[in-house]
C-alpha cells in the first residue's frame, strides 16, 4: 500500500466534499469541475441502457448438482472472458455483516471532520482518510470522500489509522474482511476450474495474498454533470469485491464496447471485477448519497507474475512480460487514475 510523492487531499473544508455539501455552494469549486471531455454523460439514453452484466449464482457452484455446476462454470467463463465484471448472488456471506459494515462505515463518514482528520492520508501513502492518487496541487478532484486501510498481511497495516470511533468499527471490519477473504479464495478456485486448471493453482501462486479495503462516500452534488465520483480507471488487484448499500442509486459504470453502461446492483449481491481488465468509473447524484465498500485481493508483493505457460504457444504468444508484483503495485499507486494505461507497465 506504500507509495511515494502523493499529495494527500483531506485537510481543510475546501477539499472535503461533505463539508462542501453542508455549505450548499451556488457553484461547484473549480477544483472539482472536470474538463468538458472528462465529464460524465448523464442523459436518459445512458441511464435507460439495458445492463447485461452477468450474474453468477455461487450456490450452484458450491452446492449444485453436476448439471447446475457445469452450467454455472460456463457462465463464469463467459463473465470473465467477455466482461471482466459480474455480480455474485448467494455468496454465502451473512447478510447481517453487510448491514453492520455499512452502518459503521456510514457512522465514520458522519463524524465531525476534525475527528476524521485524525486518520488523514499522509504524504507517501494511500491509506487513511482523504483522496488517493493526487499528485499535483492543480489536479482535478473527484466528488468523493475515501477511507482506505491495509488488512493483510500484517505488515501492510497501519494501526494508527484504525479509528476509535465508532466503537464497533474495527471489530466489524475484521469480521467482514475475514469473510470476504474466504469468498475471494473460493471464487478464485472456481475461476481456475473455468480455465481448466487445478482449483488451488491461484492460492499456491499468490502466496500470502494482499488484502485492502477502501470505503467510498459520495455526497449529493448540485451539478452532477460537471463532476466525477471516481475517475475512469481499471483496478490493479486480482479480484475486486464491491458491496453497494441497498437502495443506493446506480453510480458504477463500466466501459463496454466503448459505451459507458450503468450497473444496476442486485440487492445483497457482490459486484466482482477481475484483474486489470475493464475500465470503470463512478458518477454522483443530485439528491441522493451513495456508499460503497471495496475490497482488493491480490498476490503477495514478493511473487513474480507472468503469462501462464498453459496458455502460451506459437498461436497465442506472450503479450506481457514477467514482473515482480510489488513493482507493479508501486507503479499502480504512484500514477493517476487514467483508464487502463497502467497496464502498459508490463506490455511487451
UniProtKB/TrEMBL annotation:
<feature type="domain" description="Fe2OG dioxygenase">
    <location>
        <begin position="209"/>
        <end position="299"/>
    </location>
</feature>
<keyword id="KW-0408">Iron</keyword>
<dbReference type="InterPro" id="IPR027443">
    <property type="entry name" value="IPNS-like_sf"/>
</dbReference>
<keyword id="KW-0560">Oxidoreductase</keyword>
<dbReference type="Pfam" id="PF03171">
    <property type="entry name" value="2OG-FeII_Oxy"/>
</dbReference>
<comment type="similarity">
    <text>Belongs to the iron/ascorbate-dependent oxidoreductase family.</text>
</comment>
<dbReference type="InterPro" id="IPR044861">
    <property type="entry name" value="IPNS-like_FE2OG_OXY"/>
</dbReference>
<dbReference type="InterPro" id="IPR026992">
    <property type="entry name" value="DIOX_N"/>
</dbReference>
<protein>
    <recommendedName>
        <fullName>Fe2OG dioxygenase domain-containing protein</fullName>
    </recommendedName>
</protein>
<keyword id="KW-0479">Metal-binding</keyword>
<dbReference type="InterPro" id="IPR050295">
    <property type="entry name" value="Plant_2OG-oxidoreductases"/>
</dbReference>
<dbReference type="Pfam" id="PF14226">
    <property type="entry name" value="DIOX_N"/>
</dbReference>
<dbReference type="InterPro" id="IPR005123">
    <property type="entry name" value="Oxoglu/Fe-dep_dioxygenase_dom"/>
</dbReference>
